[in-house]
Amino acid sequence: MSQRHEFENKEVGLIDILDVVLDKGVAIKGDLILSIAGIDLVYLDLRVLISSVETLIESNKETAATLSSKQLDREKEALDRVINQS
Q1: Which domain holds residue 27?
Q2: Do 2 and 21 belong to one domain?
Q3: What is the DSSP string of 6-31?
Q4: Does pTM surpass 0.70?
Q5: What's the number of domains the chain is made of?
Q6: What is the average pLDDT across 17-40?
Q7: Which residues are CB-contacts of 57 (< 8 A; sequence separation ≥ 6)?
Q8: Are strands 39-50 and 26-36 parallel, antiparallel or unpaired?
Q9: What letter does residue 51 receive in the DSSP assignment?
Q10: pLDDT digit string (tens) for 46-77?
Q11: Looking at the domain assignment, is residue 56 inside a domain?
């Protein structure tokens, strides 16, 4: 039995989808080109990663230290010092 047939008649709620997305994560990539009369005016390269912070940290233990709130607080304080010196 294929997976598609398994889920064909099953109702899936928004909370179920959100739970899976935050648990596993999802990456979306797309390109958007705005043009007039065949002339490209704007090109957007869109990349979105949707995941819970916990899942992101578990996926890459090396960057866990840089994602900590303490590290972000230190970086914010350093930025505030630079701004106040100007």
Answers
A1: 1-51
A2: yes
A3: HHTT----HHHHHHHHHHH-EEEEEE
A4: no
A5: 2
A6: 83
A7: 63, 64, 67
A8: antiparallel
A9: -
A10: 888 777 767 766 666 666 666 667 777 888 88
A11: no
